[in-house]
Amino acid sequence: MEPHRDYLSRLADIDAKVERARVDPEVVLGRAAGLLAGRTGCRVDEAHAHLLRLAAERGDDPGETAADVLEALEDCTPQKPDRLGSLTETALRPPPPAGRRSSPGSFPSSGPAAPSGVPSVVSGWADIVQQVLDAVPGRHIVLMPVRDRNGRIEDYTFAAASPSVVDLSGRRGTQIVGRRVSETYPTLVNGPIWEAWGESIADGLSREVGPVPYASPAERAPVDVTLTVRVRPVGLGLLNSWVRHDEEDRLAERIAQTEQLGNLGWGEWDLLTGKIVWSEGLYRIYERDPAEGPLPSEESDALTVPEDIPLRQQAVEIFGRGETVDVSYRIRVGDRIKHIRTIVDAVRDTDGRPVKVYGIVQDVTARETSRVRLAEVEQQLREHQRSLAAEHRLTVQLQQIVLPIPAAPFDLPGLRAAVRYLPAETASRVGGDWYHAAAADDGSVVLAVGDVAGHGLQAAAVMAQLRHALAALSVTTTSDPAALLTHLNQLLYAGRSAADLMPLTATAVVARYDPPTGTLVWAQAGHPAPLRARAGVTTELDRPEGALLGAFPEVRYGTAAATVVPGDLLLFYTDGLIEHRDRTLEEGLAPVLVTLNRLSGERNQQPLAELLAQLRHANPDDDACILAVRPLPVASDPGGDDG
Amino acid sequence: MDAVSVNPVSDGTLHVVLRGEIDFTKSAWVRKVICDAVIEQRPSAVRVEMAEVAFLDSSGIGVLVEVMRAAWEVNAAFQVERPTARVYDQLRTAGLLAAFGLT
Questions:
Q1: Boundaries of each STAS domain copy (chain B) (predicted)?
Q2: What is the CATH number of the domain that holds A18?
Q3: Strand order across the A264-270 sheet
Q4: Do A513 and A416 belong together in one domain?
């Protein structure tokens, strides 16, 4: 009785484990939440939260509260073992013996109601054998010898067949019952299997034939099939168990491939014998040499990472309740952490005690790792988007504070001016374009537009610096355009720091308009010249020399002079208006010139508003700033309305 | 092809080749690649080959200015070579032809 004692001790081990897991507070809480959810129809997490709240209200430990709830809920259910007992009893009651499948009436093709030469006691025996074959797994056929008048065996009939038997020509076992072998499989007659049958009938001993090649008369049968037949004398007949070798190979191969494809493995633990069997895949997952044999369960348990031990505990508890376990946890194999999903179930005896434990294990590390990585990347992306959106908001706010754009044309001494800002379409490209239009201390008007290289917050900050400096200098220090640019260049050159990621340069054009004379004196720092439109003809003003701001410690800025008269339109712009990576600057400028020519050639009452409404971005990647002015007549005529 | 390649100093000259579009999206990186090479190798001259540059935005012009200043820091001559007509126009507008050795 040694094996039995071992079995009992293994069972006791499992019970102890289950008991330990059962009292684990987390497990108790989980069970109580699950039971509560089942009874009330709410979600498990809601039930879980409710229990925690309840425990807090009672000032109690959540585990104890859960235990109380469990006790209350479990008490009002009928005792499970009883129900289980009655269930199993019903299930095991023998079925009524009527209506056998092998009764000849159900096989019209098989001819007469009872095969000739078969006594009725035989058909009764065949019925019983058929019932047995219906109940047991595997593929078996029972044959009965058919004897001639001299008592010699002349043929065999199929007396019973397992329901799962399908022969090579696709006939089901139940379809051949009652038929003769010589009619159904003529190639078998007098072959090695045929011989073996005769010998077993004669000596009453089992034998095995094969592997023998099988040649089927049917066209549908596959070629190259080999069979082994195990022949056992049973009662009045012969029990044949067929093994198709190709199928066995195919099955084994398929299992191996499935294991490999799915990173799967399976294991079995026979509690009666204590024997543990691991599949090839399981050895692969645990990176263990199959020659070493399976890992004892204590050792494989010990590989679980400490944080996931509660998960295992829950699994043990679930197993203890007789349910199928499906649990994912991490194990440490060598220096790597693997994510393992395990499904465990047991073959149990009539008392519900496990007899054999089997598990399917899947290595889901790759999936887990990519899931975690994906979540990380998504998180980073979200943060990045948040910070981008925040920067964009800040840039736009800064620009609105530093560079409020008047909605309508406004008047300055002797001039009417209008401004339009075309922001870059891409949020991060909002940047460093600016304008200035204000009366200076000496009665002149200072007009300017500028463009800081780059985009975003840094460019906007530099833009603010330059614009405020220009506004302050033109009131306090000078209205001379060249002098103003010299100051701005010094400011930008000195303010540059090696830590700046982006190059710090800027371009600008600054002009001073003298209302009494209508003279425009201007200078530029690496910036496109203003455009003057007069009576349908637009010219780019001749540029004086001047390099961009921030590049050189000292730059000489030249000045140029031009006259503007009422009816002229003067346009200052930044290169976002004309610059496009697929067009030359001339091509980009052309539509602007067309618009200016047309508006200055017609008697338009609101030329500035029209002009700004009609100018379009050349480059949606860049922002653009446009300042348009026209001299107002000195006399009583107030000009247009816009105007 | 990368937007920038820097050939090690030969006969004291650092050869830089720029390609494609040098714009806001690349300027910080291009600038770092070239300026690091200039500071490490301390050449006596820096030549920037521009024949394959199709487009330069204001950040791209800023990159050239920064490289020029890095060259000056190590007392190296700075020369921009073979700009396309389009880029030449841009550099003229920016007032950089003389400083870039293009006059």
A1: 11-103
A2: 1.10.10.10
A3: A276-278, A264-270, A354-363, A336-348, A325-333
A4: yes
Q: Closest Cα to residue B86, out of B62, B52, B63?
A: B52
- CA angle in degrees (0–180, nearest 5) for A41-A44-A46: 90
Same domain, A417 and A495: yes
Q: Are A153 and A44 in the same domain?
A: no
Q: Which of B58, B66, B84 to probe the A interface (max A CBs under 10 A)? A: B58
What element of type H or E holds B49? strand B45-56
- Does A552 sit within 8 Å of B62, measured CB to CB? no
A505 with B96: Cβ contact below 8 A: no
Confidence of residue A114 (pLDDT cuts 50, 70, 90): very low
* Domain match, A75 and A24 both: yes
- Considering the domain boundaries, does residue A210 fall inside one? yes
Average pLDDT rounded to a whole number, residues A572-590: 85
Decide which of A248, A274, A302 is a domain's last residue.
A248
The CATH fold of domain B4-93: Transcription Regulator spoIIAA (3.30.750)
- Confidence label for A218 from pLDDT (cuts 50, 70 and 90): low
Interface confidence, given as ipTM, is 0.92
- Indicate the average pLDDT of chain B: 91
Average pLDDT over all residues of chain A:
80
HSE-up of residue A579 (Cα within 13 Å, Cβ side): 24
From B28, B54, B96, residue closest to A501, measured CB to CB: B28
Domain spans of chain B, in order of start: 4-93
